[in-house]
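Backbone-to-sequence.
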């Protein structure tokens, strides 16, 4: 698989990564199976999808434990990204950016991941009660201690429409502040055909400074694969059950987006899918961009990895750019 560089340093990863969250958290719990997920991670590494993206809050903790079972055998094949800064309670999530907590959390992540070093340690969310410079300084200490290779920041924002302005202003303000303390190697933020807001300001900010961009949710939480049926319903623990774009009405209204991706796929021959076109579109946004699609089954991992070899034409890119914007139930 094509390799891409995350940040100005020599942090090389496969062009398509693997989001491990769905294996343990956020999606239908009844469909989470440990052995199946382990096969998916191994298959990703086999195919060159070396970036494994996890977080201590996924589960919580169980996702790192799962990834650690693979790393114990194949640490040299993987680029490990995990996150710190969020604590999961019964019905709530809170931020904790206190320096002492950050350092303890890193040690705990290292134990769960069964590794001596984390390749990319990301701040999941800044703690409003702690200056972000203090949190980032503690993370920088972890680099100096040899426990972490590079630091990243996850975008703040909420979802926005195609024409919304200023969605990532808060993230850019944070980035400017932490850059004064220690270099940012990567930013992780949502970027997909139906959520392209990062193209306006955040992606150019990263490109100008040699900062890598990890594209989260590049398949629109599964919608852009074309495998979801409007009105199919979601289990209560599935985050899409409360998502304004996943009501039956809005899933039906957004079908033209999937239809457009399928039209482009058809021009590239049998076997090319809407999901691969969606990922290829993300890859086409810059050499510093690495999509991190979530998957928990090996066959989806294989399909996603195949997008790295798909080259969209200028006609394809124009056609995708002209697709209608995504609609949500509050719009």
């Amino acid at each position: 698989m094509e390799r891409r560089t995350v940040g100005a340093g020599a942090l090389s990863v496969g062009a398509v990564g693997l989001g491990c969250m769905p294996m343990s958290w956020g999606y239908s719990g009844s469909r989470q199976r440990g052995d199946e997920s382990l096969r998916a991670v191994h298959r990703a590494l086999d195919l060159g999808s070396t970036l494994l993206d996890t977080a201590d809050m996924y589960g919580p903790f169980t996702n790192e434990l799962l990834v650690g079972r693979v790393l114990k055998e194949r640490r040299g094949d993987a680029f490990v990204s995990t996150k710190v800064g969020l604590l999961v309670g019964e019905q709530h999530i809170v931020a904790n950016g206190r320096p002492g907590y950050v350092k303890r959390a890193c040690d705990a992540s290292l134990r769960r991941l069964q590794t001596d070093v984390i390749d990319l340690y990301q701040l999941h969310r800044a703690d409003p009660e702690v200056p972000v410079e203090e949190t980032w300084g503690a993370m920088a200490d972890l680099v100096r201690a040899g426990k972490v290779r590079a630091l990243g920041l996850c975008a703040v924002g909420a979802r926005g429409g195609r024409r919304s302005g200023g969605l990532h202003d808060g993230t850019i303000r944070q980035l400017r502040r932490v850059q004064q303390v220690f270099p940012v190697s990567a930013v992780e933020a949502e970027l997909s055909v139906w959520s392209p807001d990062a193209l306006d300001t955040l992606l150019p900010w990263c490109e100008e400074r040699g900062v890598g961009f990890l594209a989260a949710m590049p398949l629109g939480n599964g919608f852009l694969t074309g495998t979801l049926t409007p009105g199919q319903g979601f289990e209560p623990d599935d985050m899409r059950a409360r998502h304004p774009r996943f009501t039956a009405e809005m899933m039906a209204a957004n079908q033209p987006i999937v239809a457009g991706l399928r039209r482009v796929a058809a021009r590239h021959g049998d076997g090319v899918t809407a999901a691969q076109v969606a990922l290829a579109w993300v890859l086409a946004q810059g050499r510093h961009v690495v999509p991190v699609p979530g998957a928990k089954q090996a066959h989806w991992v294989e399909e996603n990895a195949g997008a790295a070899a798909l080259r969209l034409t200028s006609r394809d890119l124009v056609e995708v750019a002209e697709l209608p914007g995504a609609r949500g139930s509050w719009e």
